[in-house]
Amino acid sequence: MSDEDREKWSAEERNRDNLHVSPSCSSFEVLDPHDPIISRLATQLFKKTNDYLQGEVTAGQDHYILLEEINRLAITKYADLKNLTVNLEKTLNEYNKMYDTSILPLLQQIDDIDSQVTQFEANAYRLDSYTKQLKAQFEELCEKSK
User: Fold this and answer.
1) Is residue 22 classed as helix, strand or coil in its secondary structure?
2) How far is CA 143 from CA 55, 70, 138, in A?
3) What is the rounded CA–CA span in Å between residue 36 and residue 120?
4) Looking at residue 75, what is its pLDDT?
């Protein structure tokens, strides 16, 4: 709200029904005697308002303390996870080196043996086939010579 709007509103309120409030009704004088019941109720109102506001501030502070604790726990958890991943990386690198130095040559030997067995198998089939041909020729020669 601008100052101009406030002045306009204040002027309209003062001019409405040409009612004027006397200064004695709207001001509070410290030395004037007051109604003790109103004073007691006002004191209770201020005390309870103070208690309420203190409770709100304490609740807000408790929320911030809780958030700080959650942040500390999250930092600790992420630090633990970081350490775990570093250890996993080291272990994985060790296993990769072990694979390259120990297991890979053995696997290559297995592949070489497999290819040799395949060659022996092919030679055995050819030899078996040739043996069968020789047997057939031998039997044919034996029948002719009888």
Assistant:
1) coil
2) 121, 100, 9
3) 119
4) 98
